[in-house]
């Protein structure tokens, strides 16, 4: 798709990008007629619509990375004008909002422009003479899905939004184009309807993988509907008292006034239908095939590779929808520590770190929280001990590191790199040729002015095991970003089932499948055997907390934490916790392993919804500002 992007901008620039975000009157009818005279230019227009998708793998501008609390840049980046990071630091504003997807400014993309182009495509696709009906219907379904997705993206950020179902005719007057925000339930029903329409003519699966990977399928449409309806049933959007007074200019309430449990029932149905569609299309949880290793890999290594490659192995069986426009390259370099003593690793940027609160969310090896495990020394987690040879698949033998890094679940070691940890991969797929991270001040991973982790932890999960950092160069094996994968859908289903019916065999089934891939026992067994709160899974409240933590662990660094904390209305409690890490300027273990305060994030109630830019409110008097702004 990238092949066409520059050409399209040059040819159709005035049509695609010149208009205000809500100027939905077509402004170049002659050009539109030209586009839809033949299949070739019509296809290129469709690919341009795909190009409006957020840049999911952009480590600097895509707000789910530096805009949340999963990654924190080092001191070298303090003065860098990165829009997303300004959100994390509490500088969001109404004059020029950061990551403005409403108007497409300051790190955002213009979703309303994208929606207008979807409508233009749908108005004209059936006029193309050199296409058969099957292909026209399929491409129309793709555009309908994308139209739904762009609306969903805005809904998740702003709550009530204008719904642009049709572009207005050129004869429309100024007042007609001044649209209003619609109530939450209307937005959700509109998006769900579009997805139901799209699924009819989308293919069951991609047949020509060499040319069509990244294109949409029935499974993607049903999975997005499941995500939509779970989001709509969640506390932020389902009768939140904080928005009881949020009304439009006509006095209509924009948020539902009361909690509706039936929304969870609707979400359950959507999740079940999505899972059935995915299974029918051949999607399954990814398990690494040890035949790809040059040796019979250890069970620990194989499990670690299953976890890492569920994200990094392109177009694997777990990926329901993958964005081929987004290749994780710079994101890998920012999360790859320096592993060699030479200064020639100029491509290893290595400036992102993982805050301590994210590190501590991972379970112990027994599959329960570190604060609950009866056999794990929670109070002594910041003290140190020396790793032994039997721990070489996790930690460097005879090396001193924190107790926090011992006896954790496999996802801990698959997701995180840290002082004394093994970094498996690097073109060395043999347990006897392990590379280890050493990151005290002056050591290999912390001997450069700007290439170091501010917290002492790196997001190893984001780095493809086949990316190679050598003494002379860094070779990045990029991968397309999986927007939705099956583990995410399984956990959404468990969450919806628990909220609707409470704990039960079906509720545990789907979360336990995800845990099994990570080498853990089921929830009930783990809590009964190892937790200080063995009865927690038996109650809706207790299991809710478990499911939430499971999502934060399984989907770590994939952007879901950013949205989940908001829809659960837990962001105020979590994001207001200070950002901390080890004292990475310490040269000895005694100095290094001291918890250091880095930043005090401020998340206010108004931050749950994005602000609408003040200029847009002035231009369109029918719009209202998000509460608190």
What does the model show?
- Keywords: Cell outer membrane, Membrane, Signal.
- It is found in: Cell outer membrane.
- It comes from Chitinophaga chungangae.
- It is a single chain.
- Helices cover 39% and strands 7% of the residues.
- The protein is mainly alpha-helical.
- The protein folds into 3 domains: 268 residues, Serine Threonine Protein Phosphatase 5, Tetratricopeptide repeat (Alpha Horseshoe); 178 residues, no CATH class; 94 residues, Serine Threonine Protein Phosphatase 5, Tetratricopeptide repeat (Alpha Horseshoe), CATH 1.25.40.900.
- The longest helix is centred in the N-terminal third of the chain and has 26 residues.
Topology:
Blueprint: H1 2-17, H2 29-35, H3 39-50, H4 63-66, E1 72-73, H5 83-88, H6 111-124, H7 133-158, H8 184-201, H9 209-212, H10 218-233, H11 262-280, H12 299-312, E2 319-327, H13 330-334, E3 352-353, H14 356-359, E4 384-386, E5 400-402, H15 410-415, E6 416-418, E7 457-459, E8 468-469, E9 474-475, E10 480-485, H16 486-501, H17 505-517, H18 523-530, H19 540-554, H20 560-567, H21 571-575, E11 579-582, H22 589-592, E12 595-599, H23 614-619
Helix pairs in contact: 1-3, 3-6, 3-7, 6-7, 7-8, 7-10, 8-10, 10-11, 10-16, 11-16, 16-17, 16-19
Organism: Chitinophaga chungangae
Signal peptide: 1-23
Subcellular location: Cell outer membrane
